[in-house]
Amino acid sequence: MTAWHTEMHGKHKRTRQSLHAFVRLPALRAAQLAVLQRWLKSHAQERAWQSLLQLAGAEALDWVDGLRDDLLAAGALAVKEELKAGHWRVTRIVWRDLPALQQAAGVTTADEHAAQRDDLAAQWRALADEHPWLVGAVQTAVKGSAVVQAQRLPLLQKLVDWRQAQRTGLRQDFALAARQHTKGITPTEWDWLDAHLPLEALGIGRFEPVFWLGGALTLAGADAGDILALPRAGFVGLPCRQLTAWCSVQVPPQRYWLIENRASFERQSWQLQPGVCLIWLPGRPSEAWLQAMRCLLSQAPAPAAISCDPDPAGIQIALTAGQLWDDAGLSWDAEHMSSEFWKNGVTRALTDYDRRVLAQLQQISHLPLSLANLRDDMCESGLKAEQEGWI
To answer: Which residue has the higher pLDDT, 208 or 363?
Structure first.
């Protein structure tokens, strides 16, 4: 027989609870446990009975009162009642030991949620510290809900693995690697990745990776008479993996000019000096792009000018591309990146990430003089710019 304790709160209100302290849950069917777990996801100590009825759903109306009474008898809750039309009606319930009840029902407690949040925050910090190129994506992701954060953290971790393995492919390939399904990444997640990361440069293409070039270069295909004369076309785009089929150079350039900004690339393609082959440098170039450029250099070696945004990342990009010329024993230098071109124009303040990159660049002793001067000018002024304003 259950013993009850009743507290009166005026003539028409009362609180009832078992004199027994909560020890364990009563025997519950699977459907009852599922309803209880829905109730206990909130960490509120007191709940309106009507809101709990709504959470239980229409299919539970026949037995939900019995579930409440069993929990009351077990000492798990107290009920607040009001006298209406001569009958006592339950209006609110109060959990007597919410954390213990949540643990018994297999529901995460408030303390456990806090520990999980702290652990998740620590993982985000570690990811951003170890991989500064992810800072923008991390800063946005941590503003989302815990559920969103828990979904996006492993996605960025898979992106790190992809980059370190130097993999290349289409978006479907990355989705398969990250989520075991070609459609495993949602459109919202793709938008988030697109907004903060150079996916093409990371080897994740929306479409087939393309090598864009123009100017003084004539290529011959495998078939006789299969000729591609770039001066006639302005500029063209060839699939990176197909460029090797055109790597029989009939008329080589006297020099190459690599431009990072796409608008600047297109603008300059119509006003090139004779003998110059213009190439679009797509941010942090993918392995497919680098391989295509190696192929071209092996057939038509020539020095290069490289023009990237005058910012810390631009120096890194120029160094990545320039390494191809270093490997081939050819000369190259930065062009139109010095502060004389941008210091009196539109500039932006350096970010914390920019300053970390500059600190890394300070450790490089073999920087070309033009890039070393640019690095030092940015350190002194605290400013950076974009090349589209003058190229």
So the answer is: 363
